[in-house]
Amino acid sequence: MSSREGGKKKPLKAPKKDAKDLDEDDMAFKLKQKEQQKAIDAAKANASKKGPLVGGGIKKSGKK
């Protein structure tokens, strides 16, 4: 048996993608996405500060 038979074969390298020329609409879209992501990150940071919304835990009746 040769050592080349078994094992996982290496995948072929994918060709490099060409850099696209972005027009004004694409640039505006990317900028808008970045701003939205920043807003989402800020909202997550504020939400993590306060803790859980439900603070009651298990509800118990007044009877003993």
UniProtKB/TrEMBL annotation:
Residues annotated as transmembrane: none
Biased composition (Basic and acidic residues): 27-38
Segments for region (Disordered): 1-64
Signal peptide residues on this chain, from the entry's feature table: none
Organism superkingdom: Eukaryota
Biased composition (Gly residues): 53-64
Protein's recorded name: Translation machinery-associated protein 7 homolog
Organism of origin: Drosophila kikkawai
Lineage of the species this protein comes from: Eukaryota, Metazoa, Ecdysozoa, Arthropoda, Hexapoda
GN (gene name): LOC108075133
